[in-house]
Amino acid sequence: MIYPDDREVSMSNGPLTWRRRMRERDPGEEHRASTPLELLFDLCFVVAVAQAAAELHHALAENHLGAGLAGYVAVFFAIWWAWMNFTWFASAYDTDDAPYRVLTLVQMAGVLVLAAGVPRAFEHYDFSIVVVGYVLMRIGLVAQWLRAAAAHPEGRPATLRYAVGILIVQAGWIARLWAPGVWGWITFVVLAIAEMAVPAWAEFRGRATMWHPGHIAERYGLFTIIVLGEVILATLTAVQSAFTEHGVSAPLIVVAVAALILVFAVWWIYFTGAQAHLRTLRIALTWGYGHFLVFGSIAALGAGLEVAVDALEHKAHVSEQAAALAVAVPVVVVLLVLAALHRISGTGAVARTAIVLAGAVLALLLAFSPPLFGLPVAIAGIAVVVAATLAANLTVLSSSDRP
Question: What's the pTM?
Fold first, then answer.
C-alpha cells in the first residue's frame, strides 16, 4: 500500500519504501496475509517456546510438578504476551517501511534475550534476564505506538493509551525484581492482569485501532503451528529412542505413532472450518486471550510426551501413571478450550460440546490405566480418543452441511 506522499529509496535487495507517515491498515483489506518479516519474527518464538517446553520436560521428569508448572506458566505468559503485543500492533499499523523494520529488529533482539533467560527463571525464579528482554522489546514497541500517534491523528488517543499503559506496567516489572519471597509471585499475578487490561483500556475508550480480523486469525494459526512443533520434536525423540543398539523398542514405537496421531488430530481440530469470525473487539479479545491455554497446553503436550519417553527408558523419576497424566492433561485442556473458542468464533472441528466432554473424560481415565495396561497402551488410547473425538465432530459437521 503506497501513499501519494511516500518516496522510495533503492536498496540492494529491491525498492524499499520510506514513508513520511505511518498509516493505519485497512481492516477490510482483501487477501491480507502474514508478511515475511512477521514470519521471521516468529522464528525467534520457536526458540523461546522450545526453551520453555524443555524446562517443563526436565521439571516433570524430576517430579518437580508444582515448581515446574508455576515456572512454565510464568515463562510461557511472558513469551505469549510478547508475541501478542507485536501481532496486534502489526495488524493495525504494519507499514513495512525502514523504521518499522528496524524497530522490529529491536523487538526480535528482546525476544532472544527473553529466551536466554528462561532457564534461570525456571531454576531460580530469577526473571532479571527476562525483564531485560522485555525492556528491549518495549523500546521498539512503544516507539512504534508513539510513531503511530504522531502520524495518525484519528487513532492518537488509543495509540497513546497503549504507549502509556505499556510503559507503566513495564516499570512495575522492573520494580518487581526486588519483591521478596511470596510477594514476587503476588506481584507477578497483579502485573500479568495489568498487562491484559491495557488493550481493553486502550481499545474500549473511544476509537479503537483497526486490526484486521482475517490477519489476526491467520497469525494465531501460525503460532499454533509453532507450538505443534514441540509435539513433532517429541515424536522424533520417541523414534530416535526406539532404535537402539539392542534392537527396536516396540513400546517406544507405539508412543511415537501415538504422538504423531495426536499432533495430526490436534492440528485437524484447530484448522477445520472457516476462519475465526471475530465480529467484535470483545469477542476478539476473549478469543485471543483464550489461546494462552491452547498454545501453552500444546507445547506442554510435547513436554509430556518427552516425559513418557524418559519413563519408558527409566530416565524419569516419575511413575508411568504420572507420565500418562503429563500427556492427558494438556490434551484435555486443548479439547475443552477449543470447544469454548468454537462457540465464540464458530471455527474448528468442534460441533458438539458433549462429544468433546466425553473425549476429555476418556482421556483422563486412560491416564490412570498404566498400572493395568502399561504406559504405551495408555498413550495410544489417548491418541485414539482424540482421533475419535475429531471423527465424531467431523461427522456431525458433515451431516449439518447436507441439504
Answer: 0.90
